[in-house]
């Protein structure tokens, strides 16, 4: 097993154990969009579990050093990515800041918080990638400010086709500590879900708008 595979499994186990990722295929959650989902993810819970927080931040530092060795600045996405960017930047001895979802309506009207010089090599830190929208918005803001955005790193990704396609179209390189496929496999092994539920979860991942996986 490679180091990256070990990290994928470690983070999947951690997220499931503290229920930062909660799988409920028999009783789906409803997203704001109305889509029924067998998964709910709240990676903010990693911040209140010191052992998991350590695994996440050390893994972020390891993967950034491996994938984006030229990184000079970490920029978190507001709000969930801010704490992870701050802690990881501290471990790596790098400056950090964050990108607001919109410019402030007071003061200097900043959308980027923290000192950022044109041409600096930036890695964006996100907690979760689904459709990729918030990541792409943050990258666009940073590029407009003259940054050299090396890519995006997230704690978890659903691996949905729409997100993958959108990130590729925007020319964004991205990596994730773990993914939905790994979480589903580990959840089955750990007894959180039944073995037959894995296929249902993958069907949801392939097309969230297709609810034929429900009750199967």
Describe this structure in words.
- Helix 1 runs antiparallel to helix 2 and helix 2 packs across helix 3.
- By secondary structure, the protein is of the alpha/beta class.
- The chain has a six-stranded mixed beta sheet.
- It is built from seven helices and ten strands.
- Strand 5, helix 3 and strand 6 form a beta-alpha-beta unit.
* Separate helix tally: 7
Q: Which radius of gyration do the C-alpha atoms yield?
A: 17 Å
Structural class category: alpha/beta
Main-sheet strand order equals 7-6-5-8-9-10
Uncertain parts? none
- Calculate the mean pLDDT score and round it: 93
Helix content range: 40-55%
Number of strands: 10
Distance between the termini: 33 Å
Strand content: 15-25%
How would you sum up the major sheet? 6 strands, mixed
Give the helices and strands as they follow along the chain.
Answer: HEEEEHEHEEEHEHEHH
Record keyword descriptors for this entry.
two-stranded antiparallel sheet, alpha/beta, globular, 7 helices, 216 residues, 21% strand
List the helices and strands and how they pair.
Layout: H1 3-17, E1 21-23, E2 29-30, E3 36-37, E4 39-41, H2 50-67, E5 73-77, H3 80-92, E6 96-99, E7 112-113, E8 121-129, H4 133-144, E9 148-157, H5 161-169, E10 174-179, H6 180-189, H7 197-206
Parallel strand pairs: 5-6, 5-8, 8-9, 9-10
Antiparallel strand pairs: 1-4, 2-3, 6-7
Helix pairs in contact: 1-2, 1-6, 2-3, 6-7
């Amino acid at each position: 097993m490679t180091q990256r595979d070990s990290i994928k499994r470690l983070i999947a186990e951690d997220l499931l154990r503290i229920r930062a990722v909660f799988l409920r295929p028999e009783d789906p959650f409803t997203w704001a969009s109305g889509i029924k989902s067998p998964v709910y993810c709240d990676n903010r819970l990693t911040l209140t579990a010191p052992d998991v927080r350590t695994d996440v931040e050390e893994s972020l530092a390891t993967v950034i050093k491996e994938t984006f060795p030229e990184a000079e600045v970490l920029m978190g996405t507001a709000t969930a990515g801010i704490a992870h960017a701050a802690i990881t930047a501290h471990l790596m001895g790098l400056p950090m800041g964050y990108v607001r979802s919109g410019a402030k309506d007071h003061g200097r009207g900043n959308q980027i918080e923290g000192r950022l010089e044109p041409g600096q090599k930036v890695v964006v830190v996100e907690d979760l990638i689904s459709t990729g929208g918030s990541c792409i918005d943050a990258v666009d803001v940073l590029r407009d400010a003259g940054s050299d955005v090396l890519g995006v790193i997230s704690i978890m990704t659903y691996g949905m086709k729409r997100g993958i396609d959108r990130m590729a179209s925007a020319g964004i390189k991205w990596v994730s500590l773990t993914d939905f496929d790994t979480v589903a496999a580990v959840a089955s092994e750990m007894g959180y879900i039944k073995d037959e539920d894995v296929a249902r979860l993958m069907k949801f991942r392939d097309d969230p708008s297709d609810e034929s996986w429900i009750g199967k």
